[in-house]
Every structure is written in structure tokens, then in C-alpha cells.
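Q: Got a minute? One more chain.
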Amino acid sequence: MKKLPIVFGFNRDAFLAYLEDEFRCFAGAYGNCPRGMVDNLIDYALREIDVEDCTDKIPEFLSEIIPDVTFGEVAMFINDGHLSENGRKLKQEALMRRNMETCAWTTK
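A: Always. Here it is, folded:
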């Protein structure tokens, strides 16, 4: 079964690329094992989410299960229409943190 890259406004491919970039262990010595596990977790979340009431469910689920990944980091890859007001706030905070870290890294 082909996996859809964007479902419920969640960009799976961009999220997985972010994890590979942000966490060395995700794509390092362990190969595709962590990526495959997270991909399966995403599939599970997408299957189990109620289509009519999916606000904040994906970032809540994934941030609870994946260590060191915050709600806001997952929310960065979800369309605002699928996030609550608080979810959008956490997304913006994560994006600002990411931009500050990127700027600090590129100026060193």
C-alpha cells in the first residue's frame, strides 16, 4: 500500500526529513530502523484518528510516543486548519526556536 505524503494536513515526508536532520541516531548507525518505526507510528495515528475531530491529535500522539520530540515540532508539519489555537501557538514557538537555532548555527 502506497503511503500518502500528506494526510489530514500532515506532511509525513518533511517530518521524517526533519527527524533525520535533527536527531543523529535517526539516520545514523541504526540505518532505517528508527525511520521505519516512526513511519509505522504515523500510519497508526492516521488510521486511528477520527476524521471529523482530528485537531491536535497527530502531534499529541507522536510527541507522547517519540522521545525528545515536542508537540510544536510535530505541529510544524501540519496545516494550521488541523490545529487548535494552542496548537498553532506551540507550532509558532517551535518554528521561531528552529529559526533562531539555524541562524545561530550559520553565523558560527
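A: The helical segments are 12-22, 24-27, 33-48, 57-65, 71-75, 85-106.
Q: Perfect, thanks.
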